[in-house]
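Issue: ligand-bound run for C2E - logging full I/O for the record.

Environment: standard queue, default settings, no custom constraints.

Inputs:
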Amino acid sequence: MRSNRPTSLSMQIVASLIVLTVASGLGLIVVGHNAVSLVDATSAEQQARFATRNFASIIAEQPEDQRSVTIWNDAVIRTAARDFDWMDENLGIWVHDYFGHDETYVLDRDNLPYYAAVSSERSSTDRYSERAALIAPMVTQLRETMATASAGLDNPYEELADVSVAAPVKFNDVTAIVSLVPIISESGRVSQTPGAESLHVALQYIDAELAQKIGAPIELQDVAFGPLAPAEGQAGIPATDLSGDAVAWLTWQPERPGTTLLMEMLPVLLASIALGALMLCWVINRLVRLSSQLQVSEAQARFLANHDVLTGLPNRILFQERLTQAMHSAVRDDNLVALVAIDLDNFKRINDSLGHPAGDELVRQVGNRLVDLVRASDTVARFGGDEFLILLRDVSDEDQLRRFCERIVVDLSHPYALLGDTANVGASVGAVLARADDQDWDELMRRADIALYRAKSDGKGRYSLFEADIGKIENERNQLESDLRKSLTSGTDLHLVYQPFFDENGKMKGAEALCRWNHPQRGALSPEIFIGLAEQRGLIDQLGRWVLETACEFAAGTSLAKIAVNVSPIQLRHSDFVPMVLSTLRETGLAPERLEIELTEQVLLDQPADIREKIGRLRAAGISIALDDFATGNSSLQYLRDYRVDSIKIDRSFVARLGKDDECDHLVQAMLDLVRAMAINVTVEGVETQIQHDRLASMGCKTFQGYLLGYPMEPGVLASLIANEADAAEGSEAFA
Ligand code: C2E
Ligand code: MG
Ligand code: MG
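Outputs:
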């Protein structure tokens, strides 16, 4: 689920981006559309307002036009005289020619026409009969207004100057602006009886010409008058009669500045939208690419956080996570979980002798071998250095775990090809089976570590399972360590015994110093127990120095030909080891030729160049070097060629098998032949029977050590043995 997070995140961002873009696009369209509509509507309103005003002023102007001829003494007089020619020139035809009125009528006091002109010709007054019915209400209205204005006046010429009625009227044949004014004296000098005034009626057709007159000043497009209200997409205003009914419509094609601007901008707009879409695509593409890069690097970072860089195996963090999970599911599913801790033997030696790249390669190969050993549900982890941990799930029982550990020990002991070199490396394995109630992984790791520690102290290259009493053993070891420290400080409870070795004739050639610890509570303890402990707990230098001093001191006080002292590989690693040996010899007064240092083969596996150089210095000083427990280690003969030693001590395990195992006999024989050929002395240790002695002697062996010839003995006992031997020798010399 977690690995999809970046994808879904990028999808979310992309989706948000698209939604945002679409929303802002829609917003822009809505706002733009509204703006365009608003601009269009505002412009249409303005046009309508101007058209209305123009139309209204044309209606209002019509009576004004009439007044230029109707408020005139001559007009009163001539009409009263029914001077039609004069009327043609001044009231009818002239008005048409000058103002463009289409029809003119003059009505008498009874509102009957006595003069009519249509266009520029006098006409029959019958013409008025077609108009009379619709004009009558206006006549009545005007007469009433006149009556009101002139009420109580004899000569109301001034009051009647402003009186008029004007409005559009729809006739059968035409629609026209009809306006009425009275004919009156401009000075009052020609008086008329109020109510007897003639009325001047003017008609101006509501037609295309008028439409142009209204629309042209304000540039209306396709302006026209018609009977119908404006169609869809058209604009228009009504021409209403006195009762407010629309008698005609002035229509035009409205100006749409918003739409026009939009249309003009459209190419640019479309180009920007296309560009925007392209940029959006680019951004999305980039985002998707970035997010997948991010996904990869996040996965890498997560991998690195949880894995060991060198082997690619899970590291401590991931291992702990898996262990916790495994422990939970083990409880749930009633399964057993096991922890296996692995530590390589001699890893440091590989690193030091073959170099770090070879060490790294070794770690990688070990990791691979371990991975090959487990199932997919198990986890192999590296905790750094040469430390590996395996989490095993679904372990059926302890036997299965033992078999698994055994396989690890065997598999890891096969040779490794390391960058042109071949190396043999063993491994120690400690394992623990989690109990159902184990929930503390720290405690489990600790137990696996204790088991591993025991496997190592039991001699490496082996496995050990944690048992409840290992913890106890651990405590005991701690106690033992502190006791050993005390004994070393106080110089009590520790002492040396000496086991002599002899030539084939039974003549003592020397003795080996063997350390003994008389533990205050536990009694005599074997060096196998406390030497290892001293090595592990950093006490071996102090102990080794004490052994060397004590043994040299003892030997110096006797005529012993050679004193052999066991030296731990750890002691030899120290840079001041050789000076320490030489100063001990000086202090005790023991000749270097009388000291033999016994080294186990193990020492030669360690830092070869350094060791070779130290062995060389010791030998140069006259000290002889013996290889102890010969043929129990990894590759003895190889080392014999590389390092010059004075003698070897064939391990007592070979001696014990002599006569029982043909192969062993051949091996011992071969060793003796080979070593003799290299001019190296051979001692056999652990000679317990005469048969063994004789067989070895017949094989050409020259030096013997073992219970048959002498147990390790107290210094006093050996000293008297030496003295006896010396006496006997003297005696025999004297006898001779
Ligand atoms: P090692 O150096 O091989 O010593 C010989 C061991 O074999 C001694 O055991 C000795 O008692 C035992 N042994 C001798 N003859 C016979 C025999 O005929 N049969 C049998 N079964 N055993 C025989 P020990 O004294 O218990 O020492 C064990 C090992 O502890 C020594 O093996 C040596 O490696 C180590 N060690 C003893 N003292 C010292 C010491 O002062 N310093 C160091 N570094 N190691 C020591
Ligand atoms: Mg020895
Ligand atoms: Mg030995």
